[in-house]
Amino acid sequence: MTLLIISPDYASHLLPLATLGTAWRDAGERVVVATGPATASIVESFGFERVHLQLGRGSNPGIIKAEDQPTGEDDALRGFFDATRQGMVETLAFQASARKNDLLWNPVETARAVQRVVDEVQPDRVIVDHLAFSARLALLAHGTPYADVVLGHPSALPLEGEVYGFPPAWPAAFTPDAAAVAALWQLCQDVSDSFTAEWNAALDGLGASHLRTSSAFAEHGDLLLYNYPRELHAPSRSALLPPHEFIGSSVRSEPVDPAVEDWLQASDAPFVYVSFGSFLSVRGDVLARVLAALDALGLRVAVAIGSADRAELGELPESWLVREFLPQVRLLSDAAAAVTHGGNNSVTEAMTAGVPLLVLPFSTDQFAGAAALEDAGFGVALAPNTATVDELADGMSRVLALPTEALDALSASLRETPGRERARRALLGG
After folding, report:
1. Residues 3, 23: contact at Cβ < 8 Å?
2. CB 128 within 8 A of CB 136
3. Which segments of the protein form a coiled coil according to its record (predicted)?
């Protein structure tokens, strides 16, 4: 049996998808990954086959920098970073406008490339990143059944009354202007209409006009795999979802890092893990305030600074573990708490480890995810651009004081049946 995984050329997308494939690999079955060259080493590290497939202009092997992107994509990335400095609504508006050009990159040509891969590999099952719209368009037009993996809050697939790109919930710390929110909603609706027209035009170009839709963002595969814990999603919304499975988390294995192990064993004092992921680590100004707050609390810290300017962070305690990149899964397994931007990998891996979160959401579904964590009592959310050092310190103190019983129960459930097992069972109809 052959499993085909289709992923954009981004480490943050490929890692959870590849982890799902390990259940097939460990069963002695063939796993083929279709992705770009930037993440080839990740595919190799899992022991999978790789076929070349370019789904977009940009790429990210682990830490993204604008200067490493192709012309056009570099300016778009800088524009996104600038928008995050202006505020929540501005960032969401920037992302909505960018979708007019980004989500369907050379759609007909790319779709045909995807179809060639399917014809070559002849897979028995296909899983694809939900955000790989050109790939899903290709599979739809090709008549190939597939499961799409939603790497984020389930609202990434909007239901009736929702619009793609507009958070269905805001964390308590965010109080956006009502007029600005209304304008954002209308922008997201306009972009949805424009995207749907582009989707339908591509279907025409692929000879599949009979598959035209009234809402491209509402399209989905034969099975939805939500890389998200059911316990963080409102049951009333779950009841409205198409055929799906909440797989909880897709926690990857990491090689042992002796220096990290030495740091962990050097002290029994509780520590906080800090990371803003591969994109938003560029916000060194926010990271500097976070680290100042943790230092003021006298906490031990492991921080992955990513693409942040090290000089912007100031002088940090010598006892801290400070690197550009750290083994996140390993550190979360021992952390007392974590500070995050609210990305899907960070949130689901923290929930699996039973680690409460201080969430500083910047963009996309991070706001809805932060609100869900607050509602469940698993975290505290603050606004990254305005939270002061004192407010961040208070937020972390509140995180460390959260009750642990419900989070411990969720962690035990996620560890007992890993996401890769849940996904394989769902794909095989078991």
Report:
1. no
2. yes
3. none
- Two tokens at 190? 């306009």
Is the distance from CB of 47 to CB of 28 less than 8 angstroms? no
- How confident is the prediction along the chain (430 residues), in pLDDT tens digits per residue? 999 999 999 888 999 999 999 999 999 999 999 999 999 999 999 999 999 999 987 655 545 554 454 545 556 778 888 999 998 999 999 999 887 667 888 999 999 999 999 999 999 999 999 999 999 999 999 999 999 999 989 999 999 999 999 999 899 999 889 999 999 999 999 999 999 999 999 999 999 999 999 999 999 999 999 999 999 999 999 999 999 999 999 998 899 999 999 999 999 999 999 999 877 889 999 999 999 999 999 999 999 999 888 899 999 999 999 999 999 999 999 999 999 999 999 999 999 999 999 999 999 899 999 999 999 999 999 999 999 999 999 999 999 999 999 999 999 999 999 999 999 999 998 6
Helix runs in 222-365, H state only: 235-238, 258-265, 277-280, 284-296, 328-332, 344-353
State the residue range of the domain holding 131.
2-65+101-169+188-249+417-427
Residues 265 and 241 in one domain: no
C-beta separation of 250 from 226 below 8 A: no
Which tokens hold the place of 130? Answer: 């939900």
Domain membership of residue 285 (yes or no) is: yes
Question: What amino acid is encoded at 369 in this protein?
Answer: G
CA distance 158 to 195: 14
Statement to judge: residues 143 and 213 lie in one domain: yes
Q: Please check whether residue 156 is in contact with residue 365, taking contact to mean a CB–CB distance below 8 angstroms.
A: yes
pTM over 0.90: yes
Residue type, 296: A
423 occurs within a structural domain: yes
Check if the beta carbon of residue 153 is closer than 8 Å to that of residue 228. Answer: yes
Taking a C-beta distance cutoff of 8 angstroms, is the pair 356, 337 a contact?
yes
Q: Is residue 265 part of a domain?
A: yes
Angle at 223 between CA 121 and CA 343, to 5 degrees: 95
